[in-house]
Amino acid sequence: MKYFQPEHFEPPRNFLEKSGRQILMLxxxxxxxxxxxxEAFLCLKDIFQRRREVMRQLxxxxxxSLGVVSIVAMFNGMIxxxxxxxxxxxxxxxxxxxxxxxxxIVREMGPFLTALILAASVGSAIAAQIGTMQVSNExxxxxxxxxxPASFLVMPRLVAFMVMCPILTIYSNVLGVGxxxxxxxxxxxxxxxAYYDNALQFLTNKEVxxxxxxxxxxxxxxxxxxxxxxxxxxxxxxxxxxxxRATVVHSFLLILIAGYIITRLFY
Amino acid sequence: xxxxxxxxxxxxxxxxxxxxxxxxxxxxxxxxxxSSGAGKSVALKHMIGLLRPxxxxxxxxxxxxxxxxxxELRKLRRWFGMLFQGGALINWINIFDxxxxxxxxxxxxxxxxxxxxxxxxxxxxxLPQIQHQMPAELSGGMVKRAALARAIVTRPPxxxxxxxxxGLDPILSRNIDRLIQHLQSQMGVTSVVVTHDxxxxxxxxxxxxxxxxxxxxxxxxxxxxxxxxxxxxxEFIAAQFGHNQTFQTA
Lengths: 267, 250
Hints:
The complex is a heterodimer of chains A (267) and B (250).
Chain A: H1 15-42, H2 51-62, H3 66-90, H4 97-135, H5 138-144, H6 149-187, H7 192-201, H8 205-231, H9 236-266
Chain B: E1 2-11, E2 14-24, E3 29-33, H1 40-47, E4 55-60, E5 63-64, H2 70-77, E6 80-83, H3 95-106, H4 111-124, H5 140-152, E7 158-162, H6 170-187, E8 190-195, H7 198-204, E9 207-212, E10 215-220, H8 222-226, H9 231-241
Parallel strand pairs in B: 3-8, 3-9, 6-7, 7-8
Antiparallel strand pairs in B: 1-2, 1-4, 4-5, 9-10
Helix pairs in contact in B: 3-4, 3-5, 4-5
């Protein structure tokens, strides 16, 4: 993996130059992030050698995010059920709330919210950790010791996200639909059995697997963005803060865009 | 052994190295001194292949470093150990794992051999009891010594030191100097030390070179350097020791 050095440019002379430079930088940054991720995929062969670090990252990514994922997923389902249920009740169709909640959560909201939580909590932490290592010469030290940072740092995190993002999405889906059931029963008077039957009636394997595929892609996006931001950090503590912020913002945007593209491809 | 030939490097629109040429002989300790921003660390990064020159050549024992990439670069870097200014220990693994890291990455040693080598390296830097501590639990001087143990654990023929005494008190600085001399005499390594601490430079250096505006302004043994006709050398020495004073080498 290449060693990223801080860059300095002359200030742009006009708007055209500024815009052109931003477009070129965006393309180059995207290319570099893809190269880092690609190299991390190639380093999957080192997974046994780095099993301790992979386990640590699986724990960080999965178990440590469980609390916040649980709360967000549950309330997401409850809010959806309440909002949709109140409208459906106007047409005497509140029994359909299960279908609406399950479709919305499994297709879109489950993977989307899980990825956003992971981007904000674990992704930002990855950027901060790698960024701090970059500004304190630890990344340079890895290069000097012929340790490939893509294998040592990125690959274990990539594995953790590729495994944990879909697993947490399944967990989040179940909790979300469960939260919807609770609201449907207590607020809308829909029997749990009726809600359950309705929720599963129109849910196909395709919906479940496309949702999980989305979660898998979102996980890769978060690791790519966070790693790239970390490796290109400069300017000490200020730079680390900037990398963390950019990780969250860029991940959110890319998750939204990728979510739309995948939905468009499959439906 | 190690040679920079007419290196030019521009960073951020500023010309940092301007025709830098430097040759370090086998087993020699070359100290590069110079004011902040003179390009000392940039020169060091060229030696280890972290930076590529805009023009010029970096040669390691007759092999080309500046065009090497991938596996070839990793192979050439096996010639080096490097002590970074802040130590650059990986702060989320303990000292043992930090020092064992380059050995484990090479995959050539058994875990028992690695344990022995780490213990031996820590004994060389007089830190035999800190294997299970985390870097954050160590003082500045201990971090430098642990980082030095990591730099030498693979028994490299060349060791680079980036400001080894920066941020340390005079007593600790002299301890680090003695340690570098000790390693030099025990292992016979070729060393390049970048510093602006002249006491350190005159104590450990076989030759001292003054880097100014991206090229070597003057060079010689510590004795020759102190009596060099270059006004830059006079100015640099006077700034540390005062006028009409020289440093007595041991």
